[in-house]
Amino acid sequence: MIILASLAWWMSKSEFTLREVSYSDDAVDVELIEPIPSSVVQPAPPPEPRTTLGPDGEVLRPQAWVKQPVPNFPELALRRGVEQGVVVLRCETLVTGEFGACEVVSETPQGAGFGEAALAATRQARVTPYSIDGFDTDGSIQFTVRFRAASEP
After folding, report:
1. What does the alpha-carbon distance between residue 110 and residue 77 come to, in Å, rounded to a whole number?
2. Per-residue model confidence as pLDDT tens digits over 69-116
3. Is 17 exposed, middle or buried (0-12, 13-18, 19+ CB in 10 A)?
4. In a domain, 95, yes or no
5. Is residue 28 in some structural domain?
6. Labelling 143: which of 34, 58, 90, 92 has CA 20 to 30 A away?
7. Cα–Cα distance between 64 and 144 in angstroms, integer?
8. Residues 6+ positions from 8 with CB-CB distance below 8 Å
């Protein structure tokens, strides 16, 4: 017990200081680049879609692309030597601009993975919502996705 008390007294009277260490790395040369102003980076808003009149005189505004689907060329098609394909999709469009359920209406050539690639690309695609008399609502859209293999440089 005396040893513990002596140790506590000694620690309370002692001064502890940290040794200061400086580091320098002259091997790295960094160039700071001015950031691009945000006004340049921001894409232009999509053009306002054309409105039409419905059968009862209501103003209808169809969906318009905000971000089109950008599919990856399917590996299966590349392995089979297929250089191009066409897929027609029909999708629900939600008020949020996202796609709901989508289905492949047609796929040419079949079995090369083009349908799956087109469906996967719709997860990132966005549209303006369908509108009736200024009220956004869910709708549906049918569109074509064309695939072409990248040419060798």
Report:
1. 10
2. 888 899 998 888 888 899 999 999 999 999 999 999 999 999 899 999
3. exposed
4. yes
5. no
6. 58
7. 14
8. none
- On the 0-12 / 13-18 / 19+ scale of CB atoms within 10 A, 2 is exposed
The answer to whether 137 and 79 have CB atoms below 8 angstroms apart is no
Let me know if residue 134 belongs to a domain. yes
CA distances from 61 to 39, 96, 122, 127, 144 (A): 28, 15, 21, 12, 20
CATH code of the domain covering residue 146: 3.30.2420.10
Residue 41 has a pLDDT of 42
Count of the separate structural domains present in the chain: 1
Q: Is residue 19 part of a domain?
A: no
Token pair in block for residue 16: 């502890």
- 5: alpha, beta or left? (left if phi > 0; alpha if psi -120 to 50): alpha
Please give the residue range of the domain that contains residue 142.
Answer: 51-153
CA distance 102 to 84: 22
